[in-house]
Amino acid sequence: MRVLIINGPNLNLTGKREKEIYGATGFESFLEELRNEFRDLDIEYFQTNLEGGIIDRIQAAEGIADGIVLNAGGYTHTSVAISDAVRATGIPVVEVHISNIFAREDYRHVSLTGPYVAGIISGFGLKVYRLAILALLA
Amino acid sequence: MRVLIINGPNLNLTGKREKEIYGATGFESFLEELRNEFRDLDIEYFQTNLEGGIIDRIQAAEGIADGIVLNAGGYTHTSVAISDAVRATGIPVVEVHISNIFAREDYRHVSLTGPYVAGIISGFGLKVYRLAILALLA
Amino acid sequence: MRVLIINGPNLNLTGKREKEIYGATGFESFLEELRNEFRDLDIEYFQTNLEGGIIDRIQAAEGIADGIVLNAGGYTHTSVAISDAVRATGIPVVEVHISNIFAREDYRHVSLTGPYVAGIISGFGLKVYRLAILALLA
Amino acid sequence: MRVLIINGPNLNLTGKREKEIYGATGFESFLEELRNEFRDLDIEYFQTNLEGGIIDRIQAAEGIADGIVLNAGGYTHTSVAISDAVRATGIPVVEVHISNIFAREDYRHVSLTGPYVAGIISGFGLKVYRLAILALLA
Amino acid sequence: MRVLIINGPNLNLTGKREKEIYGATGFESFLEELRNEFRDLDIEYFQTNLEGGIIDRIQAAEGIADGIVLNAGGYTHTSVAISDAVRATGIPVVEVHISNIFAREDYRHVSLTGPYVAGIISGFGLKVYRLAILALLA
Amino acid sequence: MRVLIINGPNLNLTGKREKEIYGATGFESFLEELRNEFRDLDIEYFQTNLEGGIIDRIQAAEGIADGIVLNAGGYTHTSVAISDAVRATGIPVVEVHISNIFAREDYRHVSLTGPYVAGIISGFGLKVYRLAILALLA
Amino acid sequence: MRVLIINGPNLNLTGKREKEIYGATGFESFLEELRNEFRDLDIEYFQTNLEGGIIDRIQAAEGIADGIVLNAGGYTHTSVAISDAVRATGIPVVEVHISNIFAREDYRHVSLTGPYVAGIISGFGLKVYRLAILALLA
Amino acid sequence: MRVLIINGPNLNLTGKREKEIYGATGFESFLEELRNEFRDLDIEYFQTNLEGGIIDRIQAAEGIADGIVLNAGGYTHTSVAISDAVRATGIPVVEVHISNIFAREDYRHVSLTGPYVAGIISGFGLKVYRLAILALLA
Amino acid sequence: MRVLIINGPNLNLTGKREKEIYGATGFESFLEELRNEFRDLDIEYFQTNLEGGIIDRIQAAEGIADGIVLNAGGYTHTSVAISDAVRATGIPVVEVHISNIFAREDYRHVSLTGPYVAGIISGFGLKVYRLAILALLA
Amino acid sequence: MRVLIINGPNLNLTGKREKEIYGATGFESFLEELRNEFRDLDIEYFQTNLEGGIIDRIQAAEGIADGIVLNAGGYTHTSVAISDAVRATGIPVVEVHISNIFAREDYRHVSLTGPYVAGIISGFGLKVYRLAILALLA
Amino acid sequence: MRVLIINGPNLNLTGKREKEIYGATGFESFLEELRNEFRDLDIEYFQTNLEGGIIDRIQAAEGIADGIVLNAGGYTHTSVAISDAVRATGIPVVEVHISNIFAREDYRHVSLTGPYVAGIISGFGLKVYRLAILALLA
Amino acid sequence: MRVLIINGPNLNLTGKREKEIYGATGFESFLEELRNEFRDLDIEYFQTNLEGGIIDRIQAAEGIADGIVLNAGGYTHTSVAISDAVRATGIPVVEVHISNIFAREDYRHVSLTGPYVAGIISGFGLKVYRLAILALLA
Known about the structure:
The structure is a homododecamer. The longest helix of chain A is centred in the first third of the chain and has 11 residues, at 27-37. Chain A contains five helices and five strands, in the order βααβαβαββα. The first copy, chain A, is an alpha/beta fold. Chain A has one domain: Rossmann fold, CATH 3.40.50. In chain A, helix 3 (51-60) runs parallel beside helix 4 (80-88).
């Protein structure tokens, strides 16, 4: 099984800034742990700050990935275009958020991608990626 | 570790009605599977249709449970009182929903308990309970 | 044919308080008239002030009642949980209101159960129960 | 007793179009049944697609009808002018809707005439006219 | 100078119904007084319950009336179409309301025709027509 | 192919008033051009200021027209009744607006008929009728 | 009869600034005209930029004025306190606006004093004061 | 004089949890103080987490209590049903809140029971119960 | 202990106007009672109709009063400026309203000063001042 | 005449996914047809998933294209930045949508670019591009 | 060049209270620095807590000041009257705020004076006055 | 001190288009002036139409710039992602707008980046960049 993790804007800063919200672990080292834990899986990772870059990647995953773990960051709450890409793809998508979006600003309580994903996991720190892979495996 | 699963209104119908939304497995048989999988855990289960009954149980769990998996059903979207109970308790709570609340009616996109739980898992069918326990274990 | 009448919060006060809104007849004596008029029917009556109590009763009616006449009182306008119970049941439900909900406060113009019932009758005093039974019979 | 039934816009299509919503019976044949059932009553029928035509008819009914059964169709949700006519008339008005307005689009959940009628019956198909007459008789 | 008074829906009931709001004088007898007072003016009067009828009349006034006194009744608050007719006409229009629209229901506080008239006079009973003519004369 | 063009309120003023919005060509002379261009088509034209008149005409077109070009003018933004008529008809309807409704007042950005038409063409002056016929032909 | 004219904030600038909205006549010279026209009346004039100053003056008018013509300027749309003063006074108040408040910014379409005055005259330039006095006289 | 104090959901936790909001004194010991201070009064105390339980108790107080001090907790902001019970009772009710509801979350600024109580006291800690009794005594 | 009572706009009319809302006792005579009851206190009283006058007084109280009882009248619902003054002061402020603000117009349900006061007492007539002093004393 | 067609996010999937909404024809083969039909025109085509990429292209078209056909896809409803680019350009822009935006989700009923384009054509499938070119030609 | 600085409500407390928001420097000493820095300018300073006082001063500045630096404090967000005064004046006005209004409560994100000033500077502490003078000088 | 100026979408058109809003000076020549004026500073300039490009640049500035002057253009009002980048960076950011955002369309009155910047300067033309640098220097 091939899993594609897509991280959106500012998630390359995980572990470097706003640690009280996103924790102190960098994503790269976490990714290593993840690959160690799921040795049977082919886990690909992609990060971009570009809204359209996320769309490009979702489209390109067709036939290449069996599941997508998507953390669209700030675009989660504003992007009809990414929402359309998620709806159009044939690959199951699990939406994750490192922090609990309901515990933050009002504008983060809305997810435009939410209606088109298989499910949402929000608020357990980096563990949400691990849980998302487990959800895809089941 | 002692885990308390609290199911709110109409969740006793799981597997019996609206199977296109909630699936065909009854909660009791699923619970058995869960206990088999997590043999080291003491998993207690409680279901009620009463808003205040959920509050009573959360309060009574103090000192008895180490984690709560809460599916408050329809009360999720309307109950300030349950939200207050979750905020007051010292036990970590994971909120789960069998269906994806963002893929349903607008009034289900809001969670009053959301700001006070450790995290939310929504939309993978009964598997959300399994993922929630994993989240509590981590 | 077995008909179950469920009355929600404060409807036990009918005939005792706020007579300018709900009229001067007590529900018990009205119920007697109703049973006299519809001698072929088995009319069961249940009143509770508990939101979850209404849900319990709707669930318990499965296989026992052929039609439900539901006056959920103040819960009509706020309860997603009762709304879910009405949607889940296989028994046809007729929603009634003694007073005309559109002629009262704004917050009473909304019915959360409304979308899932067979029909709504509002505003003719206790006669709404009689009309509801006629609607179920037809 | 003289009853005037007023049907508003598009209700002349009943039985011809959108049968999944309004049923397969034409209003004229239903009217015949109704007159047969209530032989003691003088049932007059009027249909118009004109907002002002409904107002004209309500005004003209003064002294001629003892009760009005009003289905203002789409004007129900938008017409302050018809609402004013209903409020001004001395004749009791029962508002009916063939389909359940709470089970349809949001803009149909509002009734501008609602606050000024004796009561509302919505959602049992053409039977609502029969129930409305019974309500007027009581 | 030729003045056209246009009265909209239900204003033919003035003096007959809802006298606590609209007063006890019928419009016809009031009109006579008005014509006596303004003997130099050619005062034409038109009443209709039809939204489109008001538009027809405004259009037909072109070249025939020098000023319009418009009481569009309930259509004031809902009709984009009449608003468009007022905007399109070259004749100055004074908007009047017998009752004080700000002292009534919220939905009467809005005037769609308001932005396109010369001015608004609301709330002095039938005197508003007299004041409107004085405003047109000035 | 028989095409019916329905123009709503104030559109009889095209070419006479508000030329900066609607242009300087009268609809009748434009209609002549249109008939010259589409000689194979039977183009019928109807204008009314009455909301109900539009509904009457849509209903009467059944079996007589193969396509409707509808410019409901100000009723576009307020009429549930015309919207219902469009939904009920079996004839394809193309909605047109001479001016660009998104470039005007906020209340013109909403179209109640919009959800039920084949498509919308807005903002190219009288050319929208020509484009609408081309859309029907295709 | 003693009439008190109260002008609120910035109305001392009438005739000096924003003449395209408020006209070119200064209020003092207009006042002279007004007193000439209504020689039988005792017309007192008061202007202040202070919200509380308007309240003080309304209260002080008790027993001294028989009618108040109030142009509260910008406070019309925001002042609950002046609204309360108008409601409390026993003197009839006519609300006036030099410009047509419905033809200006949205926030000027609301009048907090509106519900408590005898009537409103808006939009004919300084003539509104003359019409208001006529309304008080009638 | 007999006073009934009704405490709603989570108020049994007073003194145990969220002390920064609700203070460190348990309600039972505070109650003792209160009874000592008002020795002439018969002070009864009732706490429940059930919405309907509060309604039951208000209804049962008829003829038994002379005044009710009601802290409906989280139900204050959401319960039409309790609001109806307060409106129906003949006993004067004083609404209290331990914390200042205007200084907390937006959804706590609304009180559905508010319109039907004698008065509201909010924000002085447990002292609000003492002040409420004084208000009832006066 | 020195207590400063500040009354805002129109509260000088207490006992004179709108007695059905504010009662029949004038504030001055009530003040005398209050001073008799609390002989140990130095109770100062200030009334103004000016928004800024209330701010001036709150600022001037620094070091002179130990507690403020504030009834800002209509400014309660609109004044950010007074709200800022209350927040800035070091003196505890108790907000009072003679009538129950939740039982009146919607715009009175909001208090801009509310978030910054020690507590709110609303709806027991002039007694609220007495209760407020007791709250300050405690 | 040089026409530039700009397609926004996910429109490269036309003919491949969600065919029930966007049809079964791929854009490339459709483009060929279009060029065959309009042999005199120089039709350039550009697709990007990047919001800023659309802006870049609109700016670069200056002096190179005589008309733009813009389908900004999901950005239509959210992008102030593209809206600004359309407003700034000197080239006439026709906005098109393959599906009828009024027949879809609420958030698609809004067009931020709408106010600045020459006109909008929505809902006839790929034919909208053909109609747009005709509109530009006229 | 003559510059008038107008400070609104509570700004006389700068340096005394809420120093974490407004800083520790008193305005008078800051003013001295400012006058030292801009020795060529005639800098006049005015502070008032009265809404109308600000209007009085803006009007009085006509012909006396060449530029106004306005910090209307809490009135910024609520005062149509001051907004009208700013619009009416012929003197350029620069709006300043010591704190960043977008980083504070929602109701401070709105500026009623904003649309009529030359520009806004918000959030650099007392430096905003210095920057405003520089902006006026340029 | 190293200052980075970031200009967002369409700001490369400054001086070329919409000169009535943005002025006639091109940014490049203005930049030269700026560098001449602040010879001690290292002023870097970056413009992009890409939302994600702005984020990339803010992140890349870490350790390289001592202050950022950000004009995010149309993204200011819609981008949660840029807002997150501003919040995450350790470099002080000054937000500028060439035109006065409060004097333009409603949707420009909102700034998502506003809460996280040091301050905002809006509305003095290109001078805002100069003032922003002065603010950073202070």
